[in-house]
């Protein structure tokens, strides 16, 4: 019923004539069996009698016309009968290939239950088994041996005005499971599912892409069923040229599209973002998305613990793409809010990686993302090691963030040491999947006598301690990156600026339940994500307009009108009436 009300509101809105506002019939060029096999247009058993006649469907469907809600009930029963998470993931992928609207409606109705199935951690299993589970290709497969065909390959997915959002991955660092080669197409697909589910990006205006440049995963190279290039992963100039050729071809073919880089390797991720973020509207979720959602949780925790940004001390354990992305976002926000220089702001952050605390003498072994956070070699007292415990003893941090994929790294000794020096230790074990978490939330509450403020990278059940029940906030990028993308797409922003990301963080933080109740979660629940995405998109769009980056005309300046303008352009999982098209 909610979708009917939304459709009615859109139809009656003054923004109903916008190109992305689905307020009228959907033009359909198909009929008969071809229509039933189109995931975009098919309604299955829900085709009404008039459409069955108009599109030559008589005899192809059982006679009883069902509603979308009735289809969802049956689909959920079928889903529930699958005996493993991977089987459920495969069932959902099959449904998406058959009936897009039913797929998204089922997800919306069971979002919290199904999120771990269609995304982390189960999607990681599907990616590892991509070549063995393969049934039907989805997305654009580009390979480094055939760079002359990039433009031709992209031309299969529409014209200049038909793609809004591109997710591209080279598959080198997937969801904590490493190099997965051509299977990375599934992470691009999954991210785009989330943009539709959480922010209403039109599924027909998206493009998942994999850049196949080989793999260093020997298990894949030895697998006779592996579908990707059978060669070691390309590096250096050849790789850089491949990425550049893709970006140029995508910009030429789809000049209005926003490009989202996903799960690139440690050195390439930062290098690619640094190269293109000043040229095009682009985003790296591992760097910027993780940074934004973590910062929103952290600033909410600072509010609860009454710590000011200009005095906060942060230790980050694990300084890869995610860790340095978080560090960068924290430093940007400290600099913006306190008027410090970025260099001064960075001094409030201590980054640790495999060699221990990052120091300047590590020189060329530091990645570009690590360099700004390297400390002086003599910073720790003489004789002290550069390990996590020693750093915690020296720094006395307010905030400890884990992105190391090193399970149980936050030991009882380390957490108790931290808790000696701060009233409310802020501890975020963020590594995915769950088995790689640096600590379990129940231990964190026990070791801090219930004083910890906790957010995790995967969902955890509530913790009971000292007669109180604590809901665990999940630092889920899905509460953040879809809204950022929606704002960038609708404003047609030339670039995605640092101020736009800060606006996104502020919008997400404003939704923190902990701002009203200090024992409540630091971040809102993923079930509220569509409303959150509207808030974030509004903040991003206003900032884009203020900075002179927005290229879309007619963006409302009034806050209420802007929200209506955004909502009118968000796709809903409903069956739109079909109208014949030549």
Automatic annotation (TrEMBL):
Domain Malic enzyme NAD-binding: 287-545
Gene3D superfamilies recorded: Malic enzyme, N-terminal domain, NAD(P)-binding Rossmann-like Domain
Transmembrane segments: none
Active site, UniProt feature: 119, 191
InterPro entries, per the entry: Aminoacid_DH-like_N_sf, Malic_N_dom, Malic_N_dom_sf, Malic_NAD-bd, Malic_OxRdtase, NAD(P)-bd_dom_sf
Binding site for a divalent metal cation: 262-263, 286
Similarity annotation: Belongs to the malic enzymes family.
Protein name per UniProt: malate dehydrogenase (oxaloacetate-decarboxylating)
Organism: Penicillium cinerascens
């Amino acid at each position: 019923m909610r979708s009917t009300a939304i459709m009615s509101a859109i139809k009656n809105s003054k923004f109903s004539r916008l190109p992305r506002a689905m307020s009228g019939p959907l033009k359909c060029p198909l009929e008969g069996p071809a229509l039933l096999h189109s995931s975009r247009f098919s309604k299955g058993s829900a085709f009404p009698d008039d459409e069955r006649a108009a599109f030559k469907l008589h005899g192809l469907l059982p006679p009883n016309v069902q509603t979308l809600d009735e289809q969802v009930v049956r689909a959920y029963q079928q889903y529930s009968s699958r005996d493993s998470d991977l089987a459920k993931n495969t069932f959902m992928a099959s449904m998406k290939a058959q009936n897009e609207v039913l797929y998204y409606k089922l997800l919306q109705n069971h979002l919290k239950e199904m999120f771990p199935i269609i995304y982390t951690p189960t999607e990681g299993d599907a990616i590892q088994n991509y070549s063995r589970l393969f049934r039907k290709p989805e997305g654009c497969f580009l390979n480094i041996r055939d760079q002359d065909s990039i433009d031709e390959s992209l031309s299969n997915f529409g014209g200049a005005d038909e793609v809004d959002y591109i997710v591209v991955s080279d598959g080198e660092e997937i969801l904590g499971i490493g190099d997965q080669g051509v299977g990375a197409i599934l992470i691009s697909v999954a991210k785009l599912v989330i943009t539709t589910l959480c922010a209403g990006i039109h599924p027909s205006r998206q493009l998942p892409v994999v850049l196949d440049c080989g793999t260093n995963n020997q298990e894949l190279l030895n697998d006779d069923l592996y579908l990707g290039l059978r060669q070691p992963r390309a590096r250096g100039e050849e790789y850089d040229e491949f990425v550049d050729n893709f970006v140029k071809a995508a910009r030429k073919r789809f000049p209005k599209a926003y490009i989202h880089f996903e799960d690139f390797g440690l050195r390439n991720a930062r290098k690619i973002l640094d190269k293109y973020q000043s040229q095009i509207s682009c985003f790296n979720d591992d760097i910027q998305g993780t940074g934004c959602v973590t910062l929103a949780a952290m600033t909410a925790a600072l509010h609860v613990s009454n710590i000011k940004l200009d005095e906060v001390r942060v230790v980050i354990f694990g300084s890869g793409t995610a860790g340095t992305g978080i560090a960068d976002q924290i430093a940007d926000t400290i600099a913006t809010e306190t008027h410090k220089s970025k260099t001064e702001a960075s001094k409030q952050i201590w980054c640790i990686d495999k060699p221990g605390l990052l120091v300047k003498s590590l020189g060329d072994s530091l990645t570009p993302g690590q360099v700004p956070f390297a400390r002086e070699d003599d910073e720790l007292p003489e004789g002290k090691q550069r390990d996590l415990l020693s750093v915690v003893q020296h720094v006395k941090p307010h905030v400890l963030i884990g992105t190391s994929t090193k399970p149980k790294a936050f030991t009882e000794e380390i957490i108790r040491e931290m808790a000696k020096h701060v009233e409310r230790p802020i501890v975020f074990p963020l590594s995915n999947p769950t088995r790689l978490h640096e600590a379990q939330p129940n231990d964190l509450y026990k070791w801090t006598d219930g004083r910890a403020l906790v957010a995790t990278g995967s969902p955890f059940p509530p913790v009971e301690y000292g007669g109180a029940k604590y809901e665990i906030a999940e630092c889920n990028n899905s509460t953040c990156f879809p809204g950022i993308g929606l704002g960038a797409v609708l404003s047609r922003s030339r670039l995605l600026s640092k101020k736009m990301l800060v606006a996104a963080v502020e919008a997400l933080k404003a939704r923190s339940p902990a701002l009203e109740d200090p024992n409540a979660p630091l971040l809102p629940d993923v079930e509220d994500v569509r409303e959150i995405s509207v808030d974030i998109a509004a903040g991003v769009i206003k900032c884009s307009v203020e900075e002179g980056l927005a290229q879309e005309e007619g963006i409302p300046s009034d806050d209420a009108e802007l929200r209506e303008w955004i909502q009118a352009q968000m796709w809903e999982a409903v069956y739109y009436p079909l109208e014949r098209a030549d």
